[in-house]
Specification:
Layout: H1 3-8, E1 47-52, E2 58-64, E3 69-74, H2 88-94, E4 112-117, E5 120-130, E6 135-140, E7 145-151, E8 156-163, E9 178-185, E10 204-210, E11 216-222, E12 229-231, E13 237-242, H3 251-254, E14 259-266, H4 267-275, E15 289-291, E16 305-311, E17 315-319, E18 325-329, E19 336-340, H5 341-348, E20 359-361, E21 369-374, E22 379-384, E23 389-394, H6 395-402, E24 411-416, E25 421-426, E26 438-443, E27 459-465, E28 472-479, E29 486-490, E30 516-520, E31 523-531, E32 534-535, E33 539-543, E34 547-554, E35 563-567, E36 572-576, E37 581-587, E38 592-597, E39 610-616
Parallel strand pairs: 11-15, 31-34, 33-39
Antiparallel strand pairs: 1-2, 1-29, 2-3, 4-5, 5-6, 6-7, 8-9, 9-10, 10-11, 12-13, 13-14, 14-16, 17-18, 18-19, 19-20, 21-22, 22-23, 23-24, 25-26, 26-27, 27-28, 30-31, 31-32, 34-37, 35-36, 38-39
This protein binds (dicuprio-$l^{3}-sulfanyl)-sulfanyl-copper, dinuclear copper ion and calcium ion (CA).
Length: 618
């Protein structure tokens, strides 16, 4: 059932009675204004929500406000629908072992962030982290496919990720050129079996990648760990909240201190230090690692890092759309901490006193604050995990209150969500074009919100209208476990392609009638084409024991006219989109007849679209 439809029932009752089996609604009927958020059949959503998929390893696209799931993008997982992790091309992106098998089959995506030009999304790329194996992936937005994955050296638990929005040195470069990644877990450096029982020697590194080449540029060794990452609009600062400044190994150690920190990185200085050779390398790796630990950075005028103390085990750091403030949510403290960008930059210039003086607000907002998002009117929206609420508060009022103004009205509204929200994000809220229309609450527990399906429930994504003083719940939608962060991008920022260009694939099979079989010893290459409703070869014969590579180019030119290729018993299943080329390689170890068939419904003769793989007995 579409969410939009559920939400609109109140306004426009369905003409026909619902089927007798339709479940009775359990929650209160939505308010009368909800119909205006319906996306009727045939109409398009206003926004793309590009969401992480947690330990499913994928990234997803939902429409906002409908909540429709539009696409799943396999990244760190295996997906037989498209053949991700099965085709040679996708395996090369994911990474293989010397025997050609995948290096990793799992991943854990949390944070998706896009490329910026002039402080807003330019629709070129999004990046996403893999907390499980410490990787960063890039997805191109014209095809919404992953095109590069980089495994980060010297780290574990790659969690927070953010792009820069401008060059810190050359301010005329107003677009994304770097991606920052914070590591959450401490490990021995290098992690080769040494120091395993000496946690005091473990270290945690912050990584900078080149957005273009996806190569690691440098790493910065910090005190404590890193959780989420955020960047300033002027490109000068990146920041990460730290919940484990204690360097604890067990959770009780990690929450022993009353204050942890938000660590700020002076990007230009770090890059100068790298240029000047002021770095070490770890093990056999060449990546420059600068020392960002507090001891080595006591003098603000040369410091690479600044540790701003914030209350106990903060979670999340987010930047206001005007670029003026970084906000850390308190998690174990019922507060949010507002840090002024300008004061941090002044501290690095030697014009400040203590890093804590960069804090300009610390309102009490509720229990278990995790993530903060913003509208275009100076208000912040923070998820309260323990309260199961979203709290709306005013940033300026929080600053006034911190300065002693007892009349400042900081908290403006609260709304229940269902249940235990983690991330919350607003439409265009992480750009200077924040539009204050929608807030999405990514709830970690759905409990009774949907039909029960056994012990594992899906998550609830709840969309909230934030255009007026009061927040209004618009709709619930389901999400397969488990999304973390997402970005809500106005649809005019994204320009997707309709078909591929055959010339992009150097190994494209250009002849639509190709019957090419090339043998090189035991290696056999089959080049064939697909064009509805047939493959260019009705059959092809190899010998048992051959290593077979099939290269398939789709010659159809119509958008969405995709063909599939499945080979029974050989564990092969993939698709080729219009004008795309894909290939697979396998050992023909089983003699017999194997019907290769089109797996993707393409034509009235889709079922007839087959080819015979004949493997002759050795
Ligand atoms: S974290 S629920 Cu992986 Cu983004 Cu905060
Ligand atoms: Cu080709 Cu189905
Ligand atoms: Ca702590």
């Amino acid at each position: 059932m579409s969410l939009g439809l559920t939400a609109c029932k109140e306004n426009a009752p369905p003409k026909t009675e619902p089927a007798a089996s339709a479940p009775a609604p359990v929650a209160a009927a939505p308010a009368a204004s909800h119909g205006k958020f319906e996306v009727p059949p045939g109409q398009l959503d206003d926004y793309y929500s590009i969401s992480s998929g947690g330990h499913s390893g994928e990234v997803r696209i939902y429409g906002v406000p409908s909540g429709r799931e539009i696409k799943r993008i396999p990244v760190f997982n295996i997906d037989p629908m498209v053949g991700w992790g099965i085709t040679n091309e996708s395996k090369a992106i994911i990474g293989t072992k010397p025997d050609g098998s995948l290096k990793y089959k799992t991943g854990d995506t949390h944070h998706v962030h896009g490329s910026y030009t002039d402080g807003t999304y330019d629709g070129k790329y999004v990046w996403v982290n893999d907390k499980l194996h410490g990787r960063v992936a890039r997805i191109r937005c014209d095809t919404f496919e992953c095109d590069k994955i980089t495994e980060l050296p010297n780290i574990q638990g790659q969690h927070g990720l953010f792009t820069d929005k401008r060059d810190p040195v050359d301010q005329s470069i107003n677009h994304t050129t770097r991606v920052f990644a914070g590591a959450e877990f401490h490990i021995p450096l290098p992690n080769d079996g040494r120091d395993v029982n000496s946690p005091e020697k473990y270290g945690c590194l912050f990584t900078c990648l080149d957005a273009d080449s996806m190569e690691v540029k440098w790493q910065c060794h910090v005190d404590g760990n890193m959780d989420l990452v955020a960047t300033s609009y002027d490109g000068k600062l990146a920041a990460s909240n730290q919940y484990n400044t204690e360097n604890g190994v067990h959770y009780e150690d990690m929450m022993s201190a009353e204050r942890d920190a938000c660590v700020f990185f002076n990007i230009a200085r770090i890059e100068e230090a790298v240029k000047a050779g002021k770095f070490v390398t770890i093990g056999d790796l060449k990546v420059p690692v600068v020392d960002g630990r507090a001891k080595a950075n006591a003098d603000p005028k040369t410091a690479l890092t600044c540790y701003v103390p914030v209350p106990k085990n903060p979670h999340g750091v987010n930047v206001s759309p005007d670029g003026k403030y970084f906000v850390c949510s308190g998690k174990l403290s019922p507060t949010a901490t507002v840090i002024a960008t300008e004061l941090v930059e002044k501290w690095f210039d030697g014009e400040g006193k203590e890093p804590r003086d960069c804090v300009v607000g610390e309102p009490e907002i509720g229990l278990g604050p995790l993530h903060t998002a913003f509208d275009n009117k100076g208000n912040a929206y923070t998820t309260l995990f323990l309260d199961s609420m979203i709290v709306k508060w005013n940033v300026d009022a929080a600053i006034k209150s911190f300065a002693g103004d007892k009349n400042a009205k900081v908290v403006l509204d609260r709304i229940d969500v269902h249940y235990q929200p983690g991330h919350g994000y607003t439409s265009m809220g992480e750009t200077k074009e924040a539009d204050g229309r929608f807030f999405n609450s990514g709830n970690k527990f759905s409990k009774d919100r949907f039909l029960p399906v056994g012990p594992l429930h899906c998550e609830t994504e709840q969309l909230i209208d934030i255009t007026s003083d009061k927040m209004v719940l618009i709709s619930d939608h389901t999400a397969y476990p488990e999304p973390h962060d997402a970005i809500i991008v106005a649809r005019n920022k994204i320009k997707t392609r309709q078909i591929y260009d055959m010339d992009e694939f150097p190994h494209a099979v250009k002849d639509p009638k190709s019957q090419t079989i090339t043998r090189n010893g035991k290696k056999v290459t089959i080049q064939l084409a697909s064009q509805a409703p047939a493959y260019s070869m009705r059959e092809f014969t190899v010998k048992q024991g051959d290593e077979v590579t099939i290269i398939l180019t789709n010659h159809d030119k119509v958008e969405d006219l995709t063909h599939g290729f499945g080979i029974p018993k050989y564990d092969i299943c993939f698709i080729v989109n219009p004008q795309q080329t894909a290939s697979v390689t396998f050992k023909a170890d089983k003699p017999g007849v194997f019907w290769c068939y089109c797996t993707h419904f393409c034509h009235a003769l889709h079922l007839e679209m087959r080819s015979r793989l004949i493997v002759e007995k050795a």
